[in-house]
Write a structure and sequence with these properties.
α4 (about 80-85) packs parallel to α5 and α5 (about 100-115) packs antiparallel against α10 (about 325-340). By secondary structure, the protein is of the alpha/beta class. It is globular. It has helices at about 15-25, 40-50, 55-60, 80-85, 100-115, 130-140, 175-180, 180-190, 305-315, 325-340, and strands at about 5-10, 30-35, 55, 70, 90-95, 120, 145-155, 195-205, 210, 220-225, 230-235, 240-250, 255-260, 265-270, 280-285, 290, 345. β15 (about 280-285) and β16 form a beta hairpin. It contains 10 helices and 17 strands. It folds into 2 domains: about 5-120, 3-Layer(aba) Sandwich (Rossmann fold); about 125-290, Dihydrodipicolinate Reductase, domain 2 (2-Layer Sandwich), CATH 3.30.360.10. The protein is about 30% helix and about 25% strand.
Length: about 375
């Protein structure tokens, strides 16, 4: 198999899951370099995953063999790093959110088009076995005509948990909508198509949070809260479906839910934050059952979208976690929060094609027939 060489920028907490899969799971990927503003972090990851080179960002971008840059930096740096990579002639796959602002995201997409390069980004959980099985059930009519959808994610706030530097969760580009919302909005667009109109309500309970993790060297330090921590949205889909989404990080534990309601049945999807999980269906005739997966990739799969982009580069097809999809999701999330501020419905200016489902019967962690 021809391999596509990639480089990773940003060697923080999430990079471990990406690097594990990109070096061990997807044969099409060849991780040749990693970089971080803190050189010791890049060196640590290079040693951990047998990556040939730990280097500066400039050195990584200057490597002519690297075809895809995987951008795992903090949200406020996403657009800047994306633009640097595109200017260096690299295709880009970025962690969510695609950018902090719409304007920054548009600049990235326009530059990619001008240079004939690809951009895209997380989440790629909609390519996992769970949500691909849901997609097949909907497309084959198992729940009849979908007319409503409901998503919910309730969890504790990052200051209570184990993240060493939770500040960005409470800054613009963070908060529950931009941290967890991308999983749900992307899943819904993949299952039901693009969104045309939204409204919403958003709440910021506290102006600051205290780091309560006793193992953190920052224990007791206070963090300013810049963004809403409890957001609910109503979404009108082009298809006619009306969906609701509630995202909050002011509670405890972890409570995810995604349900699609149709004229002939109800589909209970897996957690959109995961690649797998139980999928079940309740049909009008009373039948209730858990549905076996029709697709693979139902375990931890960070990097699946990168592998799909690599396959698309070689075959010439569209990659699924593409810039139009990730921008549309960003646009929807911003519009829900803006609708709350202005007390009105927002028409969504952007749109995207519903990404194509994965083929059935794929072998050996590949994404093409």
């Amino acid at each position: 198999m021809n391999k596509v060489k990639i480089g990773v920028i940003g060697c923080g907490q999430i990079s471990g899951a990406y690097l594990k899969n990109c070096t061990q799971k997807f044969d099409i990927l060849d991780v040749v370099a990693c970089a971080d503003l803190v050189p010791a972090l890049a060196q640590k990851r290079a040693e951990e995953f047998n990556i040939p080179k730990a280097c500066s960002v400039g050195e990584l971008l200057a490597d002519p063999e690297i075809k895809i840059v995987v951008n795992l930096t903090v949200p406020k740096a996403h657009a800047q790093v994306n633009i640097m990579a595109l200017e260096a002639g690299k295709n880009v796959y970025v962690e969510k959110p695609f950018a902090v602002t719409r304007d920054d995201a548009k600049k990235v997409i326009e530059l990619a088009k001008a240079k004939g390069l690809r951009v895209g980004g997380a989440p790629d959980t909609f390519l996992g076995g769970g949500l691909q099985t849901c997609r097949k059930l909907i497309d084959e009519g198992w729940i009849g005509t979908p007319y409503a959808a409901s998503g919910l994610i309730i969890m504790g706030n990052a200051a209570d948990g184990g993240h060493p530097n939770p500040d960005f969760f409470f800054q613009v580009g963070g908060g529950p909508m931009f941290d967890m919302g991308p999983y749900y909005v992307t899943a819904l667009v993949s299952l039901l198509g693009p969104i045309s109109r939204v409204t919403g309500s958003a709440q910021k309970l506290f102006s600051e949070k205290t780091i309560l993790n006793t193992t953190s060297p920052r224990f007791g330090e206070k963090i300013n809260v810049e963004v809403p921590t409890n957001v609910s949205g109503i979404m009108d889909f082009d298809s006619g479906v009306v969906g609701t989404l509630m995202v909050a990080k002011e509670s405890f534990g972890y409570t995810p839910r995604l349900e699609i309601y149709g004229t002939e049945g109800i589909l209970y999807a897996n957690d959109p934050n995961m690649f797998g999980g139980p999928v079940s269906i309740h049909r009008r005739d009373g039948e209730k059952k858990e549905v076996p997966y029709t697709h693979g990739f139902n375990e931890e799969g960070r990097g699946l979208g990168v592998a799909d982009m690599a396959h698309a580069l070689l075959s010439g097809r569209e990659h699924r976690a593409n810039g139009e999809l990730t921008y549309h999701v960003l646009d929807v999330m911003h519009s829900i929060e803006e609708a709350s501020k202005e007390g009105r419905h927002f028409r969504i200016a952007s749109t995207c094609n519903r990404p194509k489902p994965l083929p059935l019967g794929l072998r050996n962690n590949t994404l093409d027939d």
